[in-house]
Structure formats: structure tokens, C-alpha cells
Amino acid sequence: MKAIGFSGGPDHIAFPAVAPGLSPLFFHDAAAALAIDGEVLFAVEQERLSRQKHTNAFPVEALRACTTFGSLAPQEIDAFAFFFEEAYYDRSLQDDCRKLGLPAPPPVRKLLRDRLSATFEAEIPDDRLFFVNHHKAHALSAYRASGLDHALVLVIDGNGEDVSSSLFDARGDALRLLTNHGVAYSLGHFFRLATKLAGFRDFEEYKFMGLAPYGDAAALQTGMMGLFTPLADGGYELDMDGLTALAARHGVGGTSAGQPDRVTADFAAAAQALLERAVQHLLAPWVGRTDARALCLAGGVAQNCVMNARLARTGDFDTVFAYPAAYDAGAAIGAALAVSPPPRPAPRPAATATGATYCAFLGPELERDAKIAAELERFGPLIETRPIAAPDERAAECLAQGEIIGFAAGRSEFGPRALGARSILADPRPKENWQRINLAIKQRESFRPFAPAALAEDAAALFEMPDAALNLGHMTFVSRVRPAHQARLGAVTHVDGSARLQTVATSSNPALYSLISAFKARTGCPVLLNTSFNNSHEPIVQSARDALRTFLTTELDCLFVGGFEVRKAGAPEDHLAALRWRLDPWVEIAKEDTEQVTLIRAGRYRTTLPAPLFAMLLEPAENGARGSQRSGQAHPHALAEAVATLWRQRFIDVHHAC
pTM higher than 0.85, yes or no? Predict the structure, then answer.
């Protein structure tokens, strides 16, 4: 049985970037996954291929990547499974079109069949298209990945079809729904609203979570906890309007020295505390009603690694498995599994099954060295390269010398965490690395923490480990750094002494294990700072070209990509005459007059520059597209600065003129 699960929107109309009443979360985080006979073999997010974060576009490239990986013709796919129910999707599209004053859409079954057929240039029969309940897709993705034979499975997000959380009793191959909660009191929507009130944007709940340790939950505890009313059997009510009033009353959303102020941090801490209390209350009645001693977590809220750690410390469970791709992209895997009969491995005891068999490296393979060499040629005089036989040993040497590196090798991770295949790596000991990576490399807020990747056999000596068995190899829980080592691990210890720990075992992550071991041999430290390989304007890199772009537009010291070590040979202004650039395909010119030009990328990112500079930067090509460098520039410094800024923000793409 060959099945492809997918998430994302149908792209049946061109929704405006900003539309009153239309949620920006419309079928976000598009992805596709291939399962054969119940085994997940491949999965990739559309954003990794299109380079647009959280895209809700129909996952054309991701779907094609699935069949390419399996060397399959579309006619060989037995089932295409979508991650929401058909009736809900029909109703949702009709409502959105009505809000926008657009004609009613055709049935979603026809829309998706047409899009699938166009994607593969082949007719997809109606009987091969399936629709899967959203929370069931989430639950299956987590439970199957866990390797457990019996567990409670909690799905908690903004909303599925008409519910915001679902609790299942999973036993063998069966999922039995125990309870669910409606959308009116959605904890996902509550935390999203709190995030927005604190001054962050959509999809930035992880920043809000990272801000919480800077605050004092007790400062706003009375007001915040008064918004939560516990009811019998794990039920509850939430006062959403009260949350908005609380934020307004205390002036939440202010800044100090460019960072969220103390009251906003207190607000974040109190909201985090409410979330943890609410989820514990939701689970409590059901722990004793089943004999399950294991818990699986899925849905967007399960990306909250602080909440996950709190659940692991309750003592209610011997095992807690937090699915690494708990958000909507991961539901593409669950949709594929829902229509693909499961394999039947020998069951393992719940106390020892911690997702050790789950491999997160499900994405496309990095290109072979011959193709990487061709990509290196595109950047000509900007880089110096040399082939290396042992990238892990050479990378460890550079890290031990204090360099911060980009590292890309093998198949990419599926999920929001870089686990070593597409990572920025650094020495975790100097605290100054925390700020250097945040500001000069990741180009993001300085308060945000970084994760330690530690050799599994050394982790317990450095970090406090819970009694429950956890899938710590996937960076889905926080742990406390032991007090004696907090100063030593200054770049990965958060202000409250916590860290989002990744343990690295040779059996599940041999490449990163080898690199950390080589670093330990040189320094005595069995830990590296590990963060995703991207800047704040783009998703995690996928290809060698992505890695080179990010390397050249940040202050990374060195890049290891495949079998090559790459270093910078100069800044763009040093080689301006040899470079060419074009507007990114996702960029629109929103406003152009004699004074200024406004560019919008993917409907989300905006920049404005003087019209004379824009005219100097770009000229119409013969086909009417914007692109190519003008010759004889009068202001090379201004031009070089504009090229560097727009390239870093991904409004333009730059390459050598060869």
C-alpha cells in the first residue's frame, strides 16, 4: 500500500495578503509524506522547497518530492490523504470566500483532485483521494512514531474540525476517543492571542515561550489564573476577552532597549503557567481511568517544550513521547498512516519505548558533491572552497578554535528543529556566543535561548534528568542544567537555568555523534550549541544553494556542505561588478512612484527603499521582469549596501555573473 499524506491549502483563488476576517493561519504549514505498507519513508515541508515560511500553498514541490524519492509514477500511489475532513474543508472554504466577497468555490474534492492531477500531469482517480479527521491524523503521527503498544494520546492545537483538543486511548492498532474540548475555549487560540498581545506575530508562540523565564508569573498570577475555570472531568472554561483586558490593564506589549519589557515578560510567564495548569487539569481524570502509563503528545501546542517537561515531571507517566513534528506539517504523516495499514513489529514495554525507532531525518538528501561543486561556482569570487575527506573532524577543529559554523549533510530533518543535518553549531561554553549568534547570525531577538546537543552517555552528568523515559533526541523537552555546569555552559543555559536538551546517540544520529565526540576529544566538552541553519527571514536551509545563501548573508565563520569547507573571500561590495541579482519570484512591487518603492515578499515581509536607489539597483529585462545589474553605477557603496540588505532579507537572489 503506497500512500501520500498532505497538508496545505488548495490555491483555488488568489487570497489577498491581508483580508479582514480571514485568518492568516488558513491551512498553514503545508507538507507531504510518503508511507509504504504503514512505514513512513519520506516527508518534507513545502517551505523547505519554496523557501516561504509557514506557507499554506498547495504543496506541489513536496508532493513531487515524495514520488521522486520512491521512484514512483503517480499512478502507482494507492491513496492521497488530506489532513482534514471533507465536509469541514468545504464549509471552511465557502465561509472564507463569503468573507472576501468572492464566488462560492467548487467542492473541495474537485479542487484537490484537480490540483493533484495538475501537479503530476496525470489524472488522479476520485477513489484515490481520502480525507482524514485532523486530530486523528495528529494522533496517529505521534502514536506510530513512539513505538509504544499502549498510550494516552493528547492532541492539542488551535482547532481541528470543531474541537481544540482530543484525548485518545491508543492500544495496538486502535485509537479510541475518550474526550475532546470545543474551539470556544481553545488553549491553542488562547496562547496565540497572548502571543499577539505581547507584541509578537503569528507563528511566534515559541518566542513568547522563550520570553517567559525572564518574567515572574506571580506578578500577574491572580489576574491570569482568574481567566481559567476548571470543571468536572477535565473540562474548563477560558475567558478570552478577559485576557485582552488583562493585557491592556497592565500595559503588556511594551519594549525596553528594543526588547520586551518586564511586564510583558511577567505576562508571558503567567500565560505559560496557565497553559501548564490547564493541560494537567485536562489529563488528570483520565490517568486513573485507563491503565496507560505512557503519554504521546501532538498538535501545535505540543511544540511547547516547557509544557512537555512539566507533564513529564508529574509522575503520572513512565514514558512521555512528544512528537518532533507535532504541528500541522506532521499531520501529513498521520494522514498517510490513516489510509496505510500499519506494520506489526513486536510490541515493546511502555517503560522503555521512547521513540528510539523514530527517525526524524525523513527529508531530501543533500546533493552529491559534483552538484555542490557546481553550486559553489555560482558564487565565484565571494567564496574560497576546498574538499575535505572527514568533515566531522575538520568541523570539530574549527569549533574548538572558537568558530561558528554552518553544517549541512545527508537527509534533512522533518520538523521545526535542526538535529544536526541542517544546523548552525558552536562552542556552548562562551556566553558571548549566545548574543553573537542571535544578533549577527540568526538576526533575531537577543533574549532567545539556544539548545545544547549532548552525547547521550554524558548528558546525565550535566543535566537533571526526569524519572520518566523521554524522547530527548528530538529537542522536545527542557531540562535543568545542573548548577555546577551552568556557568561552564553559558551559551546554552537560559536565564532560569533550563535548556532545551538534545541527547545524541550513535545509533540514531551517527553523524552528529561523531562530530560532538571529535569536539570532546579536543576540548573535554561533550556538548555543542545546536540551532537551526537559517536567519530570521527564511525557513531552515534544504539545499546546498540555500546553505550558501545563508552563509554569505550572515556572520558565520565557515560552512561545511557535503564534502566541502567554504569560507568567505570578501564582502559583496568588493565584487560588485562580478555579481548579478534578480527579485525573488515571491516578491511583488506593492507601490512604486517617484519617491519610493515598497516591496512585499510572500505577503508577509515588507521593505521600502528610495525610488532612485531602486532604479539604480534593478532594471526591466526584455520580458518585463525586474532584474539584472545596471552598468556604470555612480554610487557603488549605496548599491552594495542595498544588495547586501535585500539579499539578507531574501527580496533578491544574487549569484556570480559567469
Answer: yes
